[in-house]
Amino acid sequence: MSNLSRRQWLRTAGLASGALPLMSVAGKAASFEGFLASLNHLPPGIIAKLNSNENPYGPSEFVRKAITNAFDKACRYPFADTGAIVEKVAAKEGVSPDQVLLTVGSTEGLKITALALRLFEGEVIAPVPTFDALMFYTEAMGGYVNRVPVMDNAELSLDLDEMERRVTANTRLVFVCNPNNPTGSILPAARLRDFCETVSKRTVVFSDEAYFDYITEPGYPSMVELVKKNANVIVSRTFSKVYGMAGMRIGYLIARPDLIRRIKAVQVDQPNMLALHAANAALADQDFYRFSLQKNAEGKALLYQTLDSLKLHYVRSHANFVFFKTGKDIGGVIRDMRAQGIEVGRPFLPLSEWCRVSTGKMEELEVFKKGLLKVLG
Ligand SMILES: Cc1ncc(COP(=O)(O)O)c(C=O)c1O
User: Fold this and answer.
1) What's the CATH architecture for 61-284?
2) Selection from 249, 253, 215 nearest residue 237 by Cα
3) N or C: which end of the chain has fewer CB within 10 A?
4) Which three-class secondary structure state does DSSP give residue 40?
5) Which fold has domain 3-58+287-376?
6) pLDDT tens digits for 219-263?
């Protein structure tokens, strides 16, 4: 990475001032979440790991068996087994197999979208804060990201009006993340649909749906419905969250066949044999899926209770984490929580007094409750 783009990157992550004592441990990771998850250099003594929105209950027993069985095939490249899993995903999403691309985590999907659509030759419009991987790659390749701050309302909603207003002939892609990371909020269904429909007539819309499974609103739409109508929309999904397989690195993109072909053309690697079979099993394991959602709901209820007891403001979350206002600089909060053995999410500037905590396990949330009381109580 050039010095310039590294500076841009640090500025985006709000770390250029070097003010945070976290730089040595989490400085690199602060670039974006996927990077954090892959490095995950946790300081010693952490007993409640609540920083990466993982599902600590996974993988399910059924998936573990599938992984073990897949070892027999691990001496082979995975290509021969990919097609069958693509078909399963396509059936689940109600699209045809040529509208699906399996990726090494959804992060690879974000990267190869930036590469294939040559986003670096123009501009990407994205909210801030959000999950920054696609924007990170765009900037690292020399492109420009036009960041639109989230709104100053109770949901910290994406400012769709402003994002739409900024679209020009130079806009290569508009990124939405719904539920958004780190805010956890979702957009009103009709507004989201309308935005994606309108904007996709002018440029590509990317809908990052990593947390879609956690949405409880009945009938809430995935933007896959627009892919089915041949819109210029790409959707990403992952096995890292509700399926509890963040370490397996498998996700997928859903898009029109011509877009999938373009993106596939720059994909050199692909999910490994164990990840493929893990994903295949995960799709069949409805019990674990329901269990994960149930545990997440219990975890969120405890988090809300903790935050309510401290009278801290938070955003109602549709994901597996909660974003809350500490009223203190996040650098100090992270440091003080770490001293209690608790790892919470990284800084999400410009919201420097907000903290993201993942749902984790109930026992971790009890530790969080005690720790937060000491740090902010
Ligand atoms: C919104 C969002 N998208 C994508 C990812 C990347 O997930 P993965 O690469 O594990 O699929 C994450 C990870 O936290 C995320 O929060």
Assistant:
1) 3-Layer(aba) Sandwich (3.40)
2) 253
3) C
4) coil
5) Aspartate Aminotransferase, domain 1 (3.90.1150)
6) 999 999 999 999 999 999 999 999 999 999 999 999 999 999 999
